Amino acid sequence: MKLINRIVFLLIIQQFSVNICIAQKVDSIVNMEIRKALSFNPQANSLRSDVGLADTVFNNLYKNYSGPLREELLMHFLLQDVESFNYRNWLGITYNYINEPENRRVLNRLIIARKPGQKAIEMQLVDTSGKQFTMNDFIGKVVVVETWFIGCPPCEALSKTIKPIADSLTRLRRDIVFISLNAQDSLLEWKGAISERGKFYSPSSQHFKVLNEQDFMDTYRYAGHPHLMIFDKNGKLISSNAPRPHVQNARNRASFMSLIDEALAYIPRQEK
Fold it and tell me: Is 206 helix (H, G, I), strand (E, B) or coil?
């Protein structure tokens, strides 16, 4: 019995080691393809800086690899915080090459969560006074959600970019709200960061902490912060991964503003 138990234990350890080696190989290949794509645009420091490069990486992974390795490479890439106008197409392509049940389950959740028209999950939000809100409290308004945490330089950069857009739109219209959503910091740290001298102060945004962050991240499957999402006036998803509208990236900015204009022009249908 002891011998059998030892053999079983060694087999488990061996399989565990094999899984680690596969994971390392997958991570190494994806990072190599990302570096290769970034070399085509010296000004881009990430795939977020040039959304076209993300398409290049996906196409290389899809076309240059095969079998179980391609399955793991595509899943690994899809679960990173990448942006592309073709993300939904990626999901459809990948689905045809998924055999592992767990990968298929994750991919199904991705497809559902990213599909425009899906009802927003019940985000548990709390403001600085302790009052709780959900997305249902903003029915009738377009909602732009921006996530962040303290000590995140990209979060600070996005916050500065969003501020003038929020100022302009909320001054002109009452049917749009910008939600500044803190996910990781303590209550005291958060309140300091959104005070008038704080780096994330924005008088045109409504500031909340999300209490069920893991549910939020698991549903919309994004890898980290900052993150932008847009919901229509019925509380339904327009974009689960909206382009970051930095001034220096005209394509991203135009795409983001187009999504906002489309949402504002939409006349919500009365739910039965």
Answer: strand
